[in-house]
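Sequence in, structure out.
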Amino acid sequence: MPLPRRLARINRRATNRISGLIAGRMPGFAIVVHKGRNSGREYRTPVNAFQNDAGYRIALTYGSDADWIKNVLADNGCELDHRGSRVALTAPQVIHDPDVSWAPLGVRQILLALDAPYYVQLQLAQ
């Protein structure tokens, strides 16, 4: 089971504000910039993100029904602050991988321990 919803609420109110200050510059981390599907408000969510040939893969540590991924799917994309640059991403696809084979070894072990088998693949916008 992914991380508990209660922890997500705590992270949204406290931890994300602090980690958001550095997550866009640290290896393995990024900030998803997305619009609320009802409010239209801009949100910034720290995530584990990894670049690949097609674009980026982002771990869904809270599962595939977290608010931020719902927003990205509804808008068919987002922007990503990653290592000091902002990139536009589109065509989100939520993928289930029980072995977390896409993730680097150390990250894979953590995601397996968290039982977080989902990720989203996003393409670079043209």
